[in-house]
Write the structure tokens for this entry.
Amino acid sequence: MPTRPSFLRRFLRARRGATAVEFALVGLPFFALLFSILELGMMFMTQTTIEASAISNARLIRTGQLQAGGANSAAGFKTLVCNGMSWISTADCMAHLSVDVQTFSDFSSLKVSPPIRNGALDQSQMTFNAGASCDIVLVQVFYPYSLITPLLEPGLPNLNDHQRLLTTAVAFRNENWQVGGVPCS
């Protein structure tokens, strides 16, 4: 049976398993950082996709194509926006995406703020009015993004259930699509 001092000396000098211990110390922060970077990348990619789809479909309102076509409703516009986000499933997009389209008398009266009440998106404040020729229109699109990485949860969520509200807003004056119409002033 080995004596205590010789066993302790051999234990302190042993190098077997040092790599496993070092990996255990470094691995957890490394993987936490890696998954946080992936989560932020996915969130920014989702935000960019929503913004691009909202801008391209807001153009349909601006030119009067939406008003002349059959999609002049919140559900129709939401379908168009979701169809423009090809990598997000259409069922998930239709279930979670919200649109708010309002008209204003001038650009100084625009109010851009997400309708959040008690940690949730307040659907009762959503309206849809694509306006007429030469109206000033504000299109806002809201999508609650569910966070996966627990490390991001203390700083990112602004909704209940560990979700971050991704928003985009597009403001413009509708073109004068009247036959023989003059430019809007």
Observations:
- The first strand starts at residue 98 and ends at 104.
- DSSP finds five helices and five strands in the chain.
- The CA atoms of residues 73 and 112 lie 21 Å apart.
